[in-house]
Design a protein that fits this description.
It is built from 28 helices and 29 strands. It is α/β, with parallel strands linked by helices. This is NADPH--cytochrome P450 reductase, putative.
Length: about 850
């Protein structure tokens, strides 16, 4: 326990801001490691970078930042906002503000740790005092741990020299206290962390305040137990007395374990308990729970007020600022027998909340059955309720989603908030070593926790991707852990991002219809001839200026119907628009990795989304993607080159759909202009179409039957796109020039000619491809496996021209590890062949500049 001296020291603690930018959780775990080792001695605020404002940096003496580089040199999702704000600011940091920066990256990429390097450079330009800086490399034999330990030791040494000497905490962290709320009934098995009862006794109070003890065959109790409070030992009761009040029956029940009837002292304490409870009774409403631990007596401080139950909806939507989306459709894109599970999911959005190629950031939940099984093995009653309370002796603020000061079911806590599916970190084994009585397993845990020699950890955990689920399943017989331990040591569930396929604006493009004729629908078809007669009579008499009674009657009917038609049309338009806008479309591919013949790992969020049923709900936020950084992707004067593989193509579909909408709107405007202009001006309108340039779309899939996503929809976009497709798993017909294929089938009446709405675009485009379909096939026929990079090499002359054109934007989308890097190297080689006098350094600098100004956007899926 903390003494008063330590309480006073808390107020003098130096403040540390601990920040992370993490994509898959490594930087987040490194920050948790620092937090657990320092929280006893410093006031620490622990957040992701997106959750802090740059101005808040001035409140701290030490800012510790750990960032990862993802993909081909991209910053992570949870630091994207911070990154943009940092590069816009002109702030100057004080000399007294000490920055400690650590980067995580993979040296197999050309842009190794580029985010940490750029962050350091930018902070330096703002006069930041960076006192500790280091980089961790996943390709190192000891992974990132060696450099992380060196950097961490330097940070701690700096804090000791400049503030005060302290001991690094290696005990189990205690950021939260846990109070249990039990609700047991007859014949219910008592859990190890519950109240063990060998003989049930009921203590009641009569009107005079006297007590009597009687044996009872039934037992029902609600009580709270604090896992984090230690009490003096007592020979008769181990220092504990549990009391519950049942207001509905006007009885006071109490239980004492191993109560000796001859103990007059205990009986005296019970009388005091009853009197205090009688005094408090008038203020009670319903059932309330009491926590009695201190010196076997009750004081007013021990009486716990009612805690509200956690409402999951309210907590996510109000406290955590998530939005609730309902699942409208969840369908498999391919045949049910196909091995890869890719789903087309429709979500009903609460508001119009997204733009072109925005991301939906989903908070996934754990698998319920799997979680129940693990909690059973750990002998934790998942049906019990607990209250999580911030440790008063700890000055630590974080952005964890764990609900505090509310009553929550243990099962709900794990399913919604704690990530048992994540790969275990080494420092967790240090805490497990303190929860086993087996010397053999304690030694094993300490070996796994040793980051100076990670051979055991690498072979047992990292290589086989063992999660907390797996560790608990392997060692549940040799460890004794409770809910408090898990809350204080497990990571929180992190959100995952997916690209939104549709756009809002594209749904405003509705087919024109004459709403003045809608009044026909309200008339019986047998009397439609009367309508024609009345209209004819009205118009004839109107021209003669001789309106009769019948004509006036017809006029009134027409005006009434026209007003009705206008209202009806607006209702229809609003409903169509509203229904479309409220839908978010996703393409979700199950992430699955085969570890060995007996084990497969699946991604937490993809598995969660794929198993959703229509009518269920998810909690998510909407964020901007990298595509939003270059507004010219919506400028039709710019040509877009799309390069994508697999399901990652979904991140580009929103751009294609929106450009389709823009072309249709442009076509409608030009048609209106044609009607107003003279004949010679019409020629100018058509000549403006001569400058129309098609976009280029390069796609790579495994096979055509099951993997060619949105194949039919893409036919509608052929009028402004050239589409080339490579199928890597097909030996024959592994190349497709979609435009030629559709045109050929159209001649054979296989496709409907209506798929191309703007015919004049087809004939008046600037054709930039200098070879025909058959020539392309001949060039590629020797390829046993055809990839999208082969298509780019085939058309390298055209690619070179567009690389040098300032009005070209290249969007690359693919999660395959070397995909983006190989493309950039290919671009460099293409330029080198055309400009042999230039060095590779100059060429790489040219490509780097295009990446920095977002003329080339890599990892567009992100």
């Amino acid at each position: 326990m903390f003494n008063s001296t330590m309480d006073g020291d808390i107020q003098k603690r130096s403040k540390i801001l601990l920040l992370y930018g993490s994509e898959y959780g490594t930087a987040y775990d490194c920050c948790r490691n620092v937090l657990y080792e320092l929280y006893m001695h410093f006031h620490i605020d622990f957040f992701c970078l997106n959750d802090v404002n740059l101005m808040s940096f001035y409140r701290y003496e030490n800012i510790i930042i750990i960032v990862s580089t993802t993909g081909y040199g991209c910053y992570t999702h949870n630091m994207s906002k911070f990154w943009k704000d940092l590069h816009k600011t002109n702030l100057v940091f004080y000399d007294t503000m000490n920055f400690h920066l650590f980067g995580l990256g993979d040296s197999s990429y050309d842009n190794y740790n580029i985010v940490a390097k750029k962050l350091r450079k930018k902070l330096k330009s703002l006069d930041a005092n960076i006192v500790n800086y280091n980089l961790g490399n996943y390709q190192h034999p000891s992974m990132h741990f060696t450099n992380f330990n060196i950097w961490k030791a330097n940070v701690y040494e700096f804090l000791k020299k400049n503030f005060f000497h302290f001991q690094i905490n290696d005990n189990i962290p205690c950021l939260f206290n846990v109070k249990h709320v039990y609700s047991h009934s007859k014949n219910e098995q008592q859990k190890d962390n519950g109240i063990k009862i060998s003989q049930k006794e009921e203590i009641t109070a009569n009107k005079n305040g006297k007590t009597k003890i009687k044996k009872s065959n039934s037992y029902k109790v609600n009580t709270i137990k604090d896992d984090n409070v230690t009490t003096p030992n007592d020979e008769t009761n181990n220092g504990k007395v549990s009391v519950v009040v049942n207001v509905n029956t006007n009885k006071y029940q109490a239980k004492e374990e191993q109560l000796e009837e001859s103990s007059t002292n205990i009986r005296g304490e019970i009388n005091k308990v009853v009197k205090k409870l009688q005094y408090e009774y008038s203020n009670l409403e319903g059932k309330k729970c009491y926590d009695i631990y201190e010196n076997n007596t009750i004081s007013s401080d021990n009486i716990i007020t009612n805690y509200a139950d956690v409402s999951i909806d309210e907590y996510f939507c109000k406290s955590s600022n998530f939005m609730k989306f309902e699942v409208l459709k969840n369908e498999k894109c391919s045949d049910e027998s196909y091995h890869q599970d890719v789903r087309y999911i429709d979500l009903i959005a609460p508001t119009r909340c997204f733009n072109v190629s925005d991301l939906i950031k989903v908070h996934p939940f754990l698998n319920e059955e799997k979680t129940k099984n693990i909690l059973n093995l750990l002998k934790i009653n998942y049906n019990d309720y607990i209250i999580i309370i911030q440790n008063d002796h700890v000055h630590c603020t974080n952005n964890t989603f764990i609900p505090v000061n509310k009553k929550i079911k243990i099962l709900d806590l794990f399913i919604y908030f704690l990530d048992l599916n994540k790969i275990v970190t080494p420092f967790f084994f240090l805490y497990l070593s303190k929860k086993t009585i087996s010397d053999i397993h304690k030694k094993k845990f300490l070996q796994l926790a040793d980051t100076n020699n990670i051979s055991d950890y690498f072979s047992y955990v990292y290589q086989d991707k063992r999660s907390y689920y797996d560790i608990f399943f392997d060692f549940y017989n040799y460890i004794k852990i409770d809910v408090s331990f898990l809350i204080n040591t497990l990571p929180s569930i992190q959100e995952r991002c997916y690209s939104i396929l549709n756009t809002i604006d594209s749904y405003y493009f509705l087919k024109n219809f004459n709403f003045y004729n809608l009044y026909y629908f309200s008339t019986n078809p047998n009397f439609s001839w009367i309508i024609h007669f009345l209209k004819l009579n009205y118009y004839i008499n109107k021209k003669k200026n001789a309106l009769n009674i019948l004509s006036s009657y017809t006029y009134n009917i027409m005006m009434e119907k026209m007003i009705y038609s206008l209202k009806y049309t607006n209702i229809i338009r609003n409903r169509i628009t509203q229904n479309k806008i409220d839908i978010i479309e996703l393409l979700v591919c199950l992430y699955e990795t085969t570890i060995n013949k007996n084990k497969k790992c699946v991604g937490l969020c993809s598995d969660y989304l794929i198993n959703l049923k229509p009518g269920s709900c998810i909690y998510a936020k909407i964020e901007n993607s990298l595509l939003c950084t270059n507004k010219n992707i919506l400028n039709l004067n710019y040509r877009i080159i799309y390069i994508s593989i697999g399901a990652a193509f979904s991140s580009l579909l929103g751009v294609i759909r929106h450009r389709h909408y823009l072309y249709n709107r442009l076509d409608k405007n030009k048609q209106k202009e044609k009607q107003k202009e003279k004949q010679n001006e019409k020629k100018n309108v058509y000549s403006s179409c001569n400058s129309f340039n098609k976009d280029l779309l390069f796609l790579g899939f495994r096979n055509r039957l099951n993997d060619f996503y949105f194949q039919e929809e893409l036919q509608n976009y052929l009028y402004f796109n050239y589409i080339f497709v490579a199928f890597s798993r097909l030996e024959r017909d592994n190349f497709l020039f979609y435009n030629e294929e559709v045109q050929k089938c159209s001649r054979d009446n296989t496709y409907n000619n209506s798929t191309n709405p703007n015919k004049y675009f087809e004939t008046r485009e600037n054709r930039i491809i200098q070879m025909n379909y058959e020539e392309m096939k001949q060039l590629l026929k020797e390829k046993k496996k055809l990839y999208v990079t082969d298509l780019i090499l085939m058309l390298q002359d055209m690619i070179y021209e567009h690389l040098k054109n300032i009005n070209t934007i290249i969007l690359i989308s693919g999660k395959s590890r070397p995909f983006s890097q190989n493309l950039i190297k290919m671009f460099a080689n293409i330029i080198k062949q055309k400009e042999q006098n230039k060095s590779m350094e100059e060429i790489n600098l040219f490509l780097k500049k295009k990446i920095d100004d977002f003329s080339i956007i890599l990892e567009s899926w992100y």
